Amino acid sequence: MLEIKNLHVQAGNHEILKGVDLKVNVGEVHSIMGPNGSGKSTLAQVLAGRETYRVTEGEVLYDGKNLLEMAPEERACEGVFMAFQYPVEIPGVGSAQFLKAALNAIRKRRGLEELDAMEFLTLVKQKIKSLGVDEKLLHRSVNEGFSGGEKKRNEIFQMALLEPRLCIMDETDSGLDIDALKIVANGVNALRTPERAIVVITHYQRLLNYVVPDYVHVLLDGRIVKSGGKELALELEEKGYAWVEEEARAAAQA
Amino acid sequence: MSKATDTIGELVSQDYKWGFVTEIEQDIAPPGLNEDIIRLISGKKEEPEWLLEWRLKAYRYWLTIKEPTWHNVHYSPIDYQSVSYYAAPKKKLESLDEVDPELLKTYAKLGIPLEEQKMLTGVAVDAVFDSVSVATTYKGKLAELGIIFCSFSEAAQQHPELVRRYLGSVVPYTDNFFATLNSAVFTDGSFVYVPKGVRCPMELSTYFRINAESTGQFERTLIIADEGAYVSYLEGCTAPMRDENQLHAAVVELITHDNATIKYSTIQNWYPGDKDGKGGIFNFVTKRGKCLGRNSHISWTQVETGSAITWKYPSCILIGDNSVGEFYSVALTNNYQQADTGTKMTHIGKNTRSTIVSKGISAGHGQNTYRGGVKILKSATGARNYTQCDSLLIGDKCGAHTFPYIEVKNPTARMEHEACTSKIGDDQIFYCNQRGITKEDAVNLIVNGFCKEVFRELPMEFAVEAQKLLGISLEGSVG
Ligand SMILES: Nc1ncnc2c1ncn2[C@@H]1O[C@H](COP(=O)(O)OP(=O)(O)OP(=O)(O)O)[C@@H](O)[C@H]1O
Ligand SMILES: [Mg+2]
């Protein structure tokens, strides 16, 4: 479903991603871990089409199509969703109105009928309940004044509503209390179906106890230097990244 | 990154959709301003003698004063002698059936087919085409209620006592440079009188349109709500595309007696000039209301998206005790547009209240200035003012400026002021894009959210129109 080949990315003159290779098949859950500043969010944002980053080399295929040539909203309509590490506030724009615009844009693209206000509300209320998000948030401006945890949960609620095919979650677990973490995990697991793929960026094993990944990758200084199964996450949690770094250096010298 | 790579600052390049010229034979006065021209205008309109005298007094006064320079707008000097002060369609028109089909087509292009509007929306339209009112609809129905809704020229002939009593009572001919000029040369406009205790059952509406080349348009509008009366009035404006700048200097006077209410809404979409700032309307307008009576209420709502330059301060003089003045404004400047707009609230009566909500949107190289004056006189015990003025910036070449002036002479006054400036961030746009929403739609969502307190004040169908207009005016301002 997703194939990243030798991806190099710059912001300004600074090279952040230095040749990332990653293949994600439908039905799989991949976790990407790595120290602060290693380029995880950059990777997620480039996949979503953020324009501040410049791709200097490599390619990304999504369903065999060149993802990098698509506008960000096209990618969204084609089923790429990113849960933001730092969801932005949009004062004045009501959450419900925003979600309706989003859902209908995507439905239109998929050749489905746009929902009217009633149908939309019914759907939204059902989804929001299942994610334990307070319905009152719908009446507030998008993310405005939401607590850190509310913002994160709101991202997953949106993901559940928009039903993407490729879900990229950038540190959605950070800042969640234990109950919220379980709710979010349940929400993600509900989306875990054979026709979807999920990429979970995280620093902690915690979430992975609930959303058990098929693969774990370590992103270090702009490259994926190690990949493994779910045990790798446990090992990282225990030992940190120094040993991976060491290994990578040795491999580079060899 | 390929075709997705645009940044904020590009969505502002939409062509003016109302730029067409109607080919109708016009009766145009030679350019220039002198007493003969004024006599010509007055004569064409078969005005009473006192009105001509009033015009001439204004003209003579105008010769002694200078154009103001205190505002925050820039333009090359206007040559008042090169402007033609009168243009009227040659044919005399009496009913809608006689209206030139060309003209009706013009209205159709504007999206206001008169017939349709009459039937479908229940809106009575007094259409001002350049300088003479050509069609006034629904007059009969209104007349049954004793409501007078006609062109200013007609009012001067049919109801001279009312015109004479109120003309210049809110905006005297000595008021300011442009109002004085208007007093001398005004050609037409609307007149509304709602008698005691009558609630006008429909929105009254006028569409203004400047058509002839090099003609200034000087409308004069006078609206009077007698005791306990209510009227809601909407003015919409559009002008064709021209290279040179055209002058528009209107005067609007509103008067409310005891317990009366006037709601005055404007959607102004005069030609703003092209992307490089060439052409466009100079919109120098004086609008003022006088809450004469106790518990009377005047509310101005404006959505200003057009004109190269807008210079406009719809104001209220709150004389009657407990009277209320309101000003709700959305002003949008794009490309090289400049707007210097705001309001003045003068509190004279006891327990008078005023509310000011101003929303300025700047995109491209647009410059947007809010200028507000709140004056609480010594007599205005218990007066209250609430002011909120917010600015929204799109891109980084535009500007927003606010000049709130406050003068309080009575210690019991309660004043509240809130202001904030925000920017549509690339990150906000990206967030919307990531959820499938296009840039245009994202900007519309944000802009409409920003303006919703003002749109709420507009009559329903016009709120929809205003939203669309903002969308169109901003297309291309974000890439
Ligand atoms: N727009 C930008 N301009 C310049 N440098 C940037 C930009 N965006 C990111 N960087 C830099 O690139 C590096 C990678 O950032 P990124 O946000 O991808 O890290 P991360 O792996 O997500 O880290 P964290 O775990 O802290 O979230 C950092 O050093 C960061 O400062
Ligand atoms: Mg990050």
What's the helix and strand layout?
The complex is a heterodimer of chains A (254) and B (479).
Chain A (H helix, E strand, L loop, with lengths): L1 E10 L2 E11 L4 E5 L6 H9 L5 E9 L2 E2 L5 H6 L2 E4 L6 E5 H15 L7 H14 L10 E2 L5 H15 L3 E5 L7 H13 L6 E5 L3 H6 L4 E6 L2 E6 L2 H9 L2 H12 L1
Parallel strand pairs in A: 3-10, 3-11, 6-9, 9-10
Antiparallel strand pairs in A: 1-2, 1-4, 4-5, 7-8, 11-12
Chain B lengths: L7 E5 L13 E3 L6 H10 L4 H14 L24 E3 L11 H9 L4 H8 L2 E6 L2 E5 L2 H6 L3 E4 H7 L1 H7 L10 H9 L4 E5 L9 E6 L10 E6 L4 E9 L6 E4 L2 E6 L4 E9 L10 E12 L5 E8 L4 E4 L2 E4 L5 E10 L4 E10 L5 E11 L3 E10 L7 E11 L4 E10 L5 E10 L2 H9 L4 H17 L4 H15 L1 E3 L1
Parallel strand pairs in B: 4-8, 7-9, 8-10, 9-12, 10-13, 11-14, 12-14, 13-15, 14-16, 14-17, 15-18, 16-19, 17-19, 18-20, 19-21, 20-22, 21-23, 22-24
Antiparallel strand pairs in B: 1-25, 2-3, 4-5, 6-7
Helix pairs in contact in B: 1-2, 2-8, 6-7, 10-11
